[in-house]
Amino acid sequence: MEAEVRQAFLNRPRFVEKASGFYDLDVLTDAADPSVFLLLTRWRDEESFRTWHRSESHHASHVFIPKGLKLDPAFTLLTIGHSIQPSAPAQTLRDAIANHSDALSEWLTNSDTVFALLLSPDGTIRERNRAAQRIFPANLAESTVPKLWDYLVLSDSEHLRRKLSESESANDASFLLNLAEGDQSPVTWEARLLRCDGYFLLLATEERRRDALFQNEILRITNDLSIAVREFAQKNRELKNANETIEKLARIDGLTGLANRRILEETLPREAARANRLNESLSVIFVDVDHFKPINDEFGHDAGDQVLAQLGNIFKSQLRSYDLAARFGGDEFVLLLPGTTRDGAIVIAERIRAGVGTLAFPEYPRQVTVSIGIAALGIGETGEELVAHADEALYRAKGKGGNRFEVA
To answer: How far, in Å, CA of 135 to CA of 144, rounded?
Structure first.
């Protein structure tokens, strides 16, 4: 039960950890009744505890007390105790940051990328982590302890002296330090200074903007990104072209190159509505190949495909840019002619009939003919009714022997 109570407190937001002077927190339970517990906070000094106890954050923290836990009935909310930890100056880098997080202490002490120095107010380097040892190697033969500004350019040395002498240096904004002394190559740090127990913790990362290796790495990454962007753009173009091809295939009859029936069915009601609204002409020519089945039966489907493809070319040669020729199905075709009267459609139909008569097919030695039905849109008529009238005229033409047109 004690472990569960402790975990419940650890899982809630703990404002107390952000309080100045806070040292540690623990949960103690009664041996006779584990559901009665004591929240114990440890502080570096009495004044820090009293400041926290008077703060708004302290009162707000009670909102996050886990629900359902039995409290000591002698108290309104919670039994709270506190103790004061003796404050000893930090003598090592690990001591300086151990109060924040053991994991952070371990990581920072052994870091190869983040520089950490524990400094006295006079700039003496008390301790350095693994990364800083590369710049400030420990020399046991030296009787004097090195000072940080012995490694700095003059202006940065004076700047750091002022920061260490100021009363409020903790959590200061970052600043640059240029190291130009010693056996190491010149290097620039971006640093931050933190006050801790009478000493100062200097945290820094290396500025690499002037590093040629870094510049080369940036150039390599930039080139890789540029190549990736170009490849991405190429893939987008390929995808766009593929989508356009798919869209075209969805709209075009592959054999004849004409529109398919779906496009005709989308266009027909729109053109009929527009013609009715503007009181304009609209005509339809319905075409069917005479005796088409024997062509496939006697000479094969290749011969039939040749006939249909050539008919598609004949239709396209008679159309304006805003006309529509569509394969209706099998050997049937519909030509939609906006702005065309019945007489105009008759002229076009005769041109188509005569043009088909001139075609010759190596795979089919006989003459190919077509039957044609013509219809003009009547007042208030729909597109479907218009096509139906043209279809009726077409079958009259076929009933009269074919190779002719009839008008609805």
So the answer is: 17
Residue type, 334: V
Compute the 3-state secondary structure of the chain and give helix, strand, coil in percent, each to the nearest 5.
Answer: 45, 25, 30
Helix, strand or coil for residue 195? strand
Q: 207 in helix, strand or coil?
A: strand
DSSP state string for 321-362: TT-EEEEEETTEEEEEEET--HHHHHHHHHHHHHHHHT--BT
For residue 259, CA distances in Å to 241, 271, 326, 370 come to: 20, 15, 4, 20
Q: Is residue 85 within 8 Å of residue 91, measured between CB atoms? A: no
**Residue 245: Cβ-neighbour burial (10 angstroms; 0-12, 13-18, 19+):** exposed
User: Shortest CA distance to 312 belongs to which of 378, 255, 235, 368?
Assistant: 255
Q: What is the pLDDT along the chain (408 residues), one digit of tens a residue?
A: 455 555 555 555 566 667 777 767 666 655 555 555 566 677 777 777 778 777 877 766 666 555 444 443 433 334 445 555 554 555 555 555 555 455 566 777 888 878 888 888 888 888 888 888 877 776 655 556 678 877 887 777 888 888 888 755 445 567 888 886 455 566 788 888 877 767 788 888 876 544 555 556 656 666 676 677 777 778 878 877 777 766 666 678 888 888 888 889 989 999 999 999 999 999 999 999 998 888 888 888 888 888 899 999 999 888 888 899 999 988 999 999 999 999 999 999 999 999 998 888 777 778 889 999 999 999 999 999 999 999 999 999 999 999 999 999
Sheet holding 22-29, edge to edge: 22-29, 37-43, 79-84
**266-276: buried (b, 16+ CB within 10 Å) or exposed (e) per residue?**
ebbeebbeebb
301-317 and 292-299 helices, crossing angle to 10°:
140
CA distance readout (Å), 382 to 262, 270, 328, 377, 397: 17, 10, 18, 8, 23
Catalytic residues, by residue number, are 331
Cα–Cα distance, 59 to 62 (Å, whole number): 6
